[in-house]
Amino acid sequence: MKITLLSMAMSILLFAACNSGTKTDNTSMATDTAKTGASEETKAAGTSTKGIVTAYLELKNALTKDDDKNAAQAGNSLVEAIAAVDKTSLTAEQSKVFAEVADDAKEHAEHIGSNAGNIKHQREHFEMLSQEVYDLVKAGGSTGQKLYYDNCPMYNDGKGGSWVSETKEIQNPYLGKGMPTCGSVKEELN
Description:
By secondary structure, this protein is mainly alpha-helical.
């Protein structure tokens, strides 16, 4: 019993000593995201809206491969990225758009994350999420890389669906492997 109490006391002292120093934002952020299981790209993206775009692109890429499990993981990473945004680092326009889209984007990402095995439902939420991410990117919240706003006119019984992509080549997240190149670039972003 004494050994257990002594071990616990030493652990607490060691933990307190390790945490008493000044941490840089990158160290504490990496620790926090490692605990939540976010992907390497999301960890590196930081606490700005860059993390949202990075997680969104992971999600889009999983859907292009008809990979509902990785789409669910990316959806969960996106929820974490939305929660991790440092609102004080946003411009006035970014802050306004983020306030308008954050709750809906989080809800869509949660649905995608909780629906592994139901890729049709994931894609329905991805369609609505894509508009939120597009609005955020248009407000200047991107990764600093060139992005593209693509559209597939055949999705959803001909109603169409749009998405943000990091590649100029069409990789359709709505039709996946069935019609991977269906669509066209509608706008270059950044």
